[in-house]
């Protein structure tokens, strides 16, 4: 086994061990580099990259009225925002599937209430549903970056003909006609209590900005709790860096605003030129966003078209693309790092028992994870 101590650009980050108050739990590991130390004392942890603090929330996510977030929460789960009154935001971004849907490619309205891998219907999309974790920190949204705000992103699937296909005027009438929603809009937007599409977008975006992942084992590790990542996870982290994975999936978010052509296998019958469709530039053909690797475990299949079924498949493909020699041990350990050390479900969505419209919520198969 290659030891992280032999990594050429080893960085020793000296941080305070008191950050264990996050509540993150995990097994100890005697093979983890570092000096240990008692709670509250400085602890050295081995890192293959400079220590970077988790980013602060943008101003738009600060001091948001709780009433607005709660309104967005209900709208996120309510199928009233779709033409068939059975499809909601959560249909494609469920807590059961890592805030995605467990499908290779998303299925829009007309497929009934069933969500998850068993969903079938007439509106089959070209692309995989990306997770919603850490959307608050992104400068662009969607696989091709075509939206620059969460408010814009929230409305795009709502009105797309093969996704939710809602009519803006009908959405406003429907919501305004439900007393609880009318009251909640007034509370959430006291300066303008009307039900409007802009307010729908603002509420949904406010809620989606709460999907933060920053309490994984990796976060505890860099905060001075080296025992929370075992030897395989630490070794996987160093191999992740050695193979250059961090150049596009940069810590601590483990993503970036990078759009790259990774030669992902095409799916028969689907034509998708990626960023080129937005820019019109031939050099952008096949370029897609470097998505976050946090909570990747639950959002398989992978890549923009769902062509990689397992995480190991995806990791192996990326190592081939690196052009560097690698072994199946590299694949295994990097997968362990992503799967175990970057997993944090402490702030995933919690499904309400009901929504103000009274419509039935989407149905996800039980025992999905």
Brief sketch in words of this structure:
The protein is mainly α and 369 residues long. It is 28% helix and 4% strand.
> What is the CATH level 1 assignment of the largest domain?
Mainly Alpha
Biggest beta sheet attributes: 2 strands, antiparallel
- Gross morphology is globular
Which fold name corresponds to the CATH topology of the largest domain? Cytochrome Bc1 Complex, Chain D, domain 2
Return the average pLDDT rounded to an integer: 89
Count of distinct strands: 4
State the order of secondary-structure elements, H for helix, E for strand: EEHHHHHHHHEHEHH
Terminal CA distance: 31 Å
Number of helices: 11
How many domains? The number is 2
Low-confidence stretches: 3-42
What share of residues is helical?
25-40%
Strand fraction: under 5%
CATH superfamily of the largest domain: Cytochrome c-like domain
Radius of gyration: 22 Å
Structural class: mainly alpha
Strand order of the largest sheet: 1-2
CATH 2nd-level architecture of the largest domain: Orthogonal Bundle
Compile the SSE list and pairings:
Blueprint: E1 11-16, E2 42-47, H1 66-77, H2 89-92, H3 150-159, H4 168-176, H5 179-188, H6 197-208, H7 217-222, H8 231-242, E3 259-260, H9 276-279, E4 288-289, H10 311-322, H11 328-341
Antiparallel strand pairs: 1-2, 3-4
Helix pairs in contact: 1-5, 1-6, 3-6, 8-11, 10-11
Characterization of the model:
With 369 residues, the protein is mostly helical. The protein folds into 2 domains: 177 residues, Orthogonal Bundle (Cytochrome Bc1 Complex, Chain D, domain 2); 150 residues, Cytochrome c-like domain (Cytochrome Bc1 Complex, Chain D, domain 2, Orthogonal Bundle), CATH 1.10.760. 28% of the residues lie in helices and 4% in strands. The protein has 11 helices and 4 strands. The strands form 2 sheets. It has a two-stranded antiparallel ribbon with strand order 1-2. The protein is globular, with a radius of gyration of 22 Å. The N terminus is likely disordered.
